Amino acid sequence: MTRLFNDPARFRDDMVDGFVAAYGRYVSRVPGASGVLRASGPVPGKVSVIVGGGSGHYPAFCGLVGPGFADGAVIGDIFTSPSAEQAYLVGKALDGGAGVLFSYGNYNGDVMNFGLAESRLRGEGIDCRTVVVTDDIASADTVEQRRGIAGDFCVFKAAGAAADRGASIAEVERIARKANDRTRTLGAAFAGCTFPGKSEPLFTVDPAKMELGLGIHGEPGVATTERLTATELADLLVERLLVERPVDADGRAGVILNGLGSTKYEELFVVWKAVSARLAAAGIDVISPEVGELVTSLDMAGCSLTLHWLDDELAELWDAPADTPAFRRGDVSGMAPRGVAPSRETQATAATSAAAPPTSSATPAVAAASVPVAEASVESRELARTVRSCLAAMLATVTEHEGHLGDIDAVAGDGDHGRGMLRGLRAATQAADDADGAGAGGTLRVAGDALADNGGGSSGVLWGAMLRAIGDTIGDTDVPDAATVVAALRKGADTIAELGGAKPGDKTLLDALVPFIDALGDEVTTGAGLAAAWRRAAEVAMTAAENTSQLRPNIGRARPLAEKSIGTPDPGAVSLALCATAVGAVLVEDCGGEL
Amino acid sequence: MTRLFNDPARFRDDMVDGFVAAYGRYVSRVPGASGVLRASGPVPGKVSVIVGGGSGHYPAFCGLVGPGFADGAVIGDIFTSPSAEQAYLVGKALDGGAGVLFSYGNYNGDVMNFGLAESRLRGEGIDCRTVVVTDDIASADTVEQRRGIAGDFCVFKAAGAAADRGASIAEVERIARKANDRTRTLGAAFAGCTFPGKSEPLFTVDPAKMELGLGIHGEPGVATTERLTATELADLLVERLLVERPVDADGRAGVILNGLGSTKYEELFVVWKAVSARLAAAGIDVISPEVGELVTSLDMAGCSLTLHWLDDELAELWDAPADTPAFRRGDVSGMAPRGVAPSRETQATAATSAAAPPTSSATPAVAAASVPVAEASVESRELARTVRSCLAAMLATVTEHEGHLGDIDAVAGDGDHGRGMLRGLRAATQAADDADGAGAGGTLRVAGDALADNGGGSSGVLWGAMLRAIGDTIGDTDVPDAATVVAALRKGADTIAELGGAKPGDKTLLDALVPFIDALGDEVTTGAGLAAAWRRAAEVAMTAAENTSQLRPNIGRARPLAEKSIGTPDPGAVSLALCATAVGAVLVEDCGGEL
Q1: Which of A435, A500, B345, B409 has the greatest CB tally within 10 Å of its CB?
Q2: Quick check: A117 pLDDT over 90?
Q3: Chain A positions in Cβ-Cβ contact with residue B18 (cut-off 8 Å)
Q4: Which CATH number fits the domain B8-329, given the four candidates 1.20.272.10, 1.10.8.110, 3.40.50.10440, 1.20.1250.20?
Q5: Cβ of A267 and B4 within 8 Å?
Q6: What number is the ipTM of this complex?
Q7: Region label for B167, one of left (φ > 0), alpha (ψ between -120 and 50) or beta (otherwise)
Q8: Are A269 and A291 in contact (CB under 8 A)?
């Protein structure tokens, strides 16, 4: 259980403040962004390796920033991808002119957000590349679909060490890709983890059982088995990992026995005794193993075993020195930030920061400020008031249903959907209110960007892109007719499908959105006013969202847990239908049948 | 909860095997003893710093062995002092000719066992000294009575760094003592920890409350308070620690925010944000702080804050490089065991060790073999059979009551009394059975030594010393009369009082033992046969043991929890009375009124 916090909604920001205050000799904050970089700053002419993802996994990701390892980390909320805006800002700040490698675990939210940031950095002439980590053999049969868990550590270390030796961006990318191709992990969980401010764990495991193939976001395992002794578990993990030994592996392996949070070191050593014996019996040459907590999952009980199959090149990088807040290896002379006293100024900053109001903290509201507000007609500015009312109504309904959205998300996901939407819509309404003088299109655009930057995860980035696409179509001059509104929504749905790579039937928000737009289009075509048409279409959306309970997820974090998901509706589809319903009520009130 | 184990009774041995298998590049096993030393071995002419205590606290103690830190660690069972024999063996193996410093937390069991080892090493001409750590301000008003918790880390590091710089034993002792004098810790616990094989935690905390002043052996805190926010807890810990700021402190402090096990890094950083702000506001210059798990307590939820007040000398030692399995700092060039591949032999050893039968493992049965068996008369050898029957009966009754003894020990202690007595008596009966041809006195001596070496904690060492003293008095020639038996028991009680520093009324096993001996003496004086007298005296002992529930503990681990202990009998007194009762039954059967 997570017990130490102040405001749960500010947990991530407080955590980053404290982390930088503790390890200012290693890292500093990326100015104006939710990320950290080495205290020594970016090195001109050197490739920068930037890792990241949600928080709750310490030492991953920010604890692994330092010489010989990552150059920087982008820090999302607990178990939630950082936004594209934040990844962009960190990438931009860390570019030393030789290119930037993003590396992170293969989760939809991260892929979308880092992907958007990569495009934007490339658009600015920065040679940005990406290697996603896919080490978890339990999560899919095809490697490309697998998620990244403790193997993150091996891939990041190889890339970081290579970059510090002066490798080019192409070389760093090649090495990271090879490291990922030769890294395999399998884990087991015994008990769930609890979010700050929550009293119930994200998932529970029958005390007599264990979940094989855990995720690091509280996803339950892919198979429930009887509890095993330490030796039986070691046998099982080694056996299944050896099946996936690469054909060209020469027998050398870096090995990690990773604790997830509350499975302690002594237990891991008991397991390691059997693991090392089994690996030795299989002729594996274990190089510099690490037994401890390297990629955690809050206070989850469980462990995972990672085999990082080495060749000469990877062996040298695995054993290369590293000096980060949470992990240090070998001779770091010349590279080590010595254990010197932080200056009085640093401490004073920490003190000031702690006392300062929330807005000065890790995630400044950069999105709204970065969006220029287009010139708008009087009519469009008037319509913007309705847009703001709609956003407020969406916020109200998500606030009301946050718990339910979290519950249904926790069945096969990480239970953060309600909180993410809440954070995103809070920021969106604030940004819309702040965009004084904007037209309807501009208001939707700033709201979308704020939602993407604060909502986190896949929902944030998808909703943000949708609102921006709708805003682009509606524009800031004319008041759109009903057909234009339908066209704008269709543009939003297309953007989501393209960005997320999903199609109807994959059990995503599209399964509520597309029926909604179709129904709205039909109603409008038959001459209904927008408000009345919207209300009826919202009913269709709600039914469609409920019917997603019959679907199997084909994409995203829920996919490995497809079977468990059946019987529960998709949280993204439900929140979309709730928002559509709330907007319908506003339209009836504001516009009646006028629009 | 501790979930990963094989045989709970072999948890410690499995853990040490796995630890050495994982970190063979740092440490190796002390041959024939339950301890580890640096892989590079003892350095001739250098002082050796040996730390230790029970296991369950990783990285303390074995994870802190390496250049710049400890030279070796003596490893006891979970939350249980290693035996004097093991401390002696490790000290002997690590002596490089310049002296040995023992350093460990101030707990009765450790003090007695390491103390006996120190005497024995000194007797062999090794300049062995001891500095106990007393950093926990919650555990007593007088510093000498305080227990050691996370401050262990600071004291060990100062001593280890000084020894590695070539300081003399007197210098290392002086520095360790100064480091301890300038180190203060206070902690809080939110939930208990669970022993391997147990399903219930050692103690529980009301979810709405927290225990201030936790111990690291599952001792509940000294005050129960409302749950606090992270900032409120930080304020409380800083405030109380600053009250104890040494008068000559110049404001520099090494600081540790330590996680106890399942309170995770992210939470600690949230607390650290407030801690660093408060320390800065108080003008404290925080040097190289560490936020993480350094001295744990299995999976206990909680954290502690340590202030290590530095002067120029201690500041240099605090920042000195170190390279151990669990903690690395600074430039370790030239001192670092590089991250090279463990040799195939090392792995083969691990494999063999894993497959080998239990007797080959960490704690060999050295005690029995090291005790020469005296020549014995036929009569004494006959009496030895009765002694063996008595030991078997004691083992049977402790086996039967193990759960109850653990429960009453957990009220104000660490709940290990039943298990410790069980392990000790198992080893004692085995050693007595193995001592073929020994007389009654010799059998008691080997049984006592085996009990001391395997029982762990204070009970093991006290019982062991008592049995040895009784054996010395009874000897191996004559069959003692009842008065001699009483005199032998009185000698045993005196030995316990001297070794443990306790007197009747302090709520220890003496409060059952002394009334028992007094009653036995009275009965015998009035002419009763030994068997009948013993049975009546055992009834007195049982009543006396039950009456200890009215006493306040004045010594040992239970002392800080004196109030909580009232209403519960002393587990040591209860087990003594149980054993006396069991022996009485044997005497009636074997000897009737004959003796």
Answers
A1: B409
A2: yes
A3: 268-274, 276, 291
A4: 3.40.50.10440
A5: yes
A6: 0.85
A7: beta
A8: yes
